[in-house]
Amino acid sequence: MHLNQFINGKWVPSTTNQTREIINPFNQEIIAEASEGNREDAKLAIAAARKAFDDGVWSSTPATERGAVVRTIGELIVRDKEELAKLETLDTGKTIEESRADMDDIAQVFFYFAGLADKDGGEIIESPLPHSTSKVVREPVGVCGQITPWNYPLLQAAWKLAPALASGNTLILKPSEITPLTSVKVFELMEEAGVPKGVANLVLGAGSEVGAELAENTDVDLISFTGGIETGKTIMQAASINVKKVALELGGKNPNIVFADANFEVAIDQALNAVFFHAGQVCSAGSRLLIEESIHDEFVEALVNRAKEIKLGNGFDANTQSGPLISAEHREKVAQYVAIGKNEGATLTLGGKQPDDAELQQGFFFLPTIFTNCTEEMRIVQEEVFGPVLTIETFSTKEEAIAKANNTIYGLAGAVFTQDIDKGEEVANKLRMGTVWINDFHPYFAQAPWGGYKQSGFGRELGKIGFEEYTEVKHIFRNTKPEAVNWFN
Ligand SMILES: NC(=O)c1ccc[n+]([C@@H]2O[C@H](COP(=O)([O-])OP(=O)(O)OC[C@H]3O[C@@H](n4cnc5c(N)ncnc54)[C@H](O)[C@@H]3O)[C@@H](O)[C@H]2O)c1
Ligand SMILES: C[N+](C)(C)CC=O
Predict the structure, then answer these.
(1) Tens digits of per-residue pLDDT, 302-334?
(2) Short-list 332, 368, 321, CA closest to 349
(3) Enclosing domain of residue 28
(4) Counting ligands in written order, which one lies closest to the CA of residue 457?
(5) Within this chain, do residues 171 and 314 fall inside the same structural domain, yes or no?
(6) 226: CA distance to ligand 1 center in Å?
(7) What is the pTM of this model?
(8) Are residues 238 and 259 in the same domain?
(9) 235 lines ligand 1 (CB under 6 A)
């Protein structure tokens, strides 16, 4: 499979003709050769997006028509769901069931934003001045640079593409250089749906080249980034060159608080899913479990017994419950965190190494890992591992649980399990996080905003606010009976 870039309505190789091998993390087979774009390619794409925006080919298309095109993209995703899901599993190693669920979510995201395209006709303001009208309208921001990570390649791209297009912007997407397969396919679908030339551009390649150019280039008006905290800081700094609008969706170290009065079986099952889903490579993974002291031993025993049974394997195998990590480099990072946890004095209760199974040796697998006897100042508790590693702490009062959960630089997501609904609501209100689940973990959907507090970033994706992020607000005041002011007489 050879993957090209999509710039100004044409499928093109990189200006240097360089390519990058794309690897299946399950067996290290080369699954594609992707054009390796660089700053020059990014500049060409930015120029195309700038021209398309300034010509108004898309922003002046009636919003209803824009919405119809965005809806068609969603319909094409539904049509090609199986192909897209296979590409995602090939590229990331996630199970095919997960990839199919991602594709369902992605289609819904396009449908949702398609529906919003023509819903905001502006607002009439009651002007306090005589003989005047006053109205507020929303306009597209302009040229949007969009940079996405490897863990949910198409889903994270969809959260950016759909609202940007629906609100009339032009864009350049730079997917993670290691997982470009579904982004390329969705650009084929956008072309088929009738997105005009130059409006949506795709540049493949490294963050230090393509991503950096998008963040720095003064023809880009907005940069929307999903990825790690350190990259986010670099992008924020670069974006200051022309005071771009910035949205950062960064990492998390997400607490999962389980009270003694929680439904035990539900809390066990959800705690397992919270951290080990997609091998823990989820920004909102519940990797920090806080258990009420009185049920700690029983809870840990049940959790460890369940975690031991997680079936690792080929994402295409129906029996597989979890795939590999994304790369050898990432697995090494996870292994280093395990070493850090041990050195800090946490007890390694499960896993902590690669599996021994012969059939898993070619993949980047790591066993589900549980640390007990953790304390809140440990690095293993505070830092995002982004792998199948759970830390367990205890608490004895609600106040202690809240204080511990909030003791983090992150603020992406958290959860509380209890059958006392007042207690659940109180904890949810006091957690400094962009999403809090009560008696659940992980749900997200197109209608509700997603984003972080603190160093998990700022700006929101999804929901009405996720659409508004791609708009500027303009106040238009009209004097209906113009007269001289005579101030300087
Ligand atoms: N908050 C969310 O919704 C959310 C969702 C998914 C992933 N994430 C986070 O993403 C991280 C994992 O993804 P990753 O390893 O791909 O992150 P990363 O920061 O390494 O890379 C993300 C993207 O940024 C690009 N990039 C790298 N250096 C760049 C630079 N200097 N300038 C511009 N772009 C650059 C990469 O090429 C990639 O496309 C985790 O921290 C995870 O929590 C957050
Ligand atoms: C935002 N989410 C949960 C889909 C993916 C985070 O990595």
Answers:
(1) 999 999 999 999 999 999 999 999 999 999 999
(2) 368
(3) 2-250+456-476
(4) 1
(5) no
(6) 5
(7) 0.98
(8) no
(9) yes
